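Box 3.1. Reading complex inputs
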Amino acid sequence: MTETVQQIFVFLAILGAIVYLARRFTKKSGCGSDCGTSCAAKTLPKAEPHLKDK
Amino acid sequence: MADELFRRVAIAGNPNTGKTTIFNALTGLRQKVGNYPGVTVEKKTGRFFGSHGEAMELIDLPGSYSLQVRSPDEAVARDLLLGRVKDERRPDIIIAVVDASNLDRHLYMAAQMLELGIPVVIAMNMADVAEERGLMIDLVELKQRLGVPIIPMVASKGTGIIELKHAVSRTPLPKPEQRAQLPIVFEREVAQIAKLSGAPSETSRMEAMLYLSLDQQGLAEARLAPAFRSAIAESQSRLLSGGLDPIAAPVDARYDWVSEICAAVIHRRGEDTDGLTISDRLDMFLTHKLWGWVAFIAMMTLMFFCIFTVASYPMDWIEAGVGALKKWTSAQIPPGLFQSLLVDGVLSGVGGVVVFLPQILVLFFFLGLLEDSGYMARAAFIMDRLMSRVGLHGKSFVPMLSSFACAIPGVMATRTIESRKDRLVTILVAPLMSCSARLPVYIVMIAVMLPAASAWQRAGIMLSMYSLGLIAAFAMAWLFKKTLLKSETPMLLLELPPYRAPVVRGIVQRMWERGGIFLRRAGTVILALSIILWAMLTFPKPENPDATQSEVLAHSVAGRMGRAIEPVIAPLGYDWKIGIGLIASFAAREVFVGTMGQIYNIEDADEENEGLREQMRAERRLDGTPLFTPLVCLSLMVFYVLAMQCISTVAIVRRETGGWGWPLFQIGYMTGLAYLGALVVFQGGKLLGFQ
């Protein structure tokens, strides 16, 4: 493997990593986390103000 | 359009009745379940096949005590059942899940669902618990009184699932005809408001009742047309002048109906001598003012002991495997940039994190045991004594305890909290709880700090780090409640679920999932961060080709950044290399360990691969003194207990608070607190003569 080939691989790896992170953390719906929690929720409905219940 | 063809089935009911267990059993999915209320905070959907092979859509709704909602998670259920969600069809059938051992309380929500004009099937879960408690339920009578199918179930064992499937597959599905009789005057007002509301005829009655139950503030905030608002206000005052409270009247009528039904269908089969169940006896000890804490601390210590003992063997194997892989890669690829990227960047960075997989699995094994057995609710109960003193809402316990695993589900779990201020306080302090990403940092620092310590001693230090996070969370919550987010502290009304034997399959399944998440994260985010960090540690190269590895590192972008912040972190006992770790781990805490692995691997490139802990122990300052003294290790651990250092949590806080203000404030206060804590430890320790 020549030095040029190594440089190309390195360049592609760095580019790939940057693109991956940028896409992941700019996703509108998610938070970029792998916490296992479903991130399907959009805007949550506002809770009604302090309603009384029995 | 194809969705229109599916029958939509919604699962609804009180919290902690086993709705998600039923959902998982029907769909074969693995949504998180736990033996405490508030595990599900948003709706989940799945598909299943009815008894004739027809596909149906199943919706698991967050638990709710009533359609008169008080918190955001409860609103999810109400909005779907009332068809308020835009572009989403109302369910065709509701599975109302009730706890057979608590019918008198759980039938209230079911009674409301009977008024929605949608076919209802009642899944009477936990029939085994009711039987253990000596409760005999007359199913024929109950079915007759409610007028809908009743399916007795033990969902955790799969009992009753086939019958439930059969019940929801029936065609046509009859709509419920029985319901609580509300006062005629009240019904008349409801009919008037329903007519004016403009809601579809099937839901207008319930919508009208919800409007009538709004108080003045609620009416003001409900964004209603002025004419409609005044019509509601007039109705309310007419009811009040007639001696009927518009909020309490329907509630009382439903409870009276439910009490009447329960009195007729529940029969007690002789109680045991003192009327105490096994759960009651265990609770006398586990929720005791003193012994409750002793048991809690003992359980946590045992958990950490196992993390240091049981997990250390597989950890050594993985570490040896990563070392062998590095050697093999070095032998296969000729020296050069790409070899360095793979060995010093990827394998050191990712490998440095992956070695902690066994510890993560042990942690989740114990958390699974505590959650499934029902102990978590007891932990919340004993903690509430402290929480209420600092003004924290009682419902903050689920978010706080969830944050021991990861702050993200913790922050999302705050949706169960009604008051926005209390919810914000909990969101602000939840990331102070030690999450699983901090575990690798603690383990490495404890190993470097005390190489000869016993597993019990290490477990003790780990426990104190977790306790520090808890104390810091309480202290900050107290401060926020006294200053920024002043509000009354509501009382905690917590239903203690009966203890249940944890299902081993469920715990193993959860360990598998969490292990998968950890590895996926290592193979994606951590991998990408390691590559970028390697580039920052490698470029630009110094002009002098004979420069030493340390000089190369110091010349790099990361090295320069580390040196730039060195004056700020020097008072904490850190050098510029630790500074690089602090900067790199802003995205994710565990990256600190990988970064240290990368730095020392690049520096010691010509030497035999040593474990990271040995490399850190051998690291010296310019004057030849060891860098990682016990005081520096402790100061670093304290920093990581208190610092935010998690970009995913920042993102979720932004989403949940609806802006950048609170997350930025959170980053600021936590970083400040972390700096202050680390400074006090290091400088205070030095003053006391420690090293």
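In summary: Chain A touches chain B at residues 1, 3, 5-7, 9-10, 13-14, 16-18, 20-21, 24-25, 30-38, 40-41, 43-54 (CB under 8 Å).
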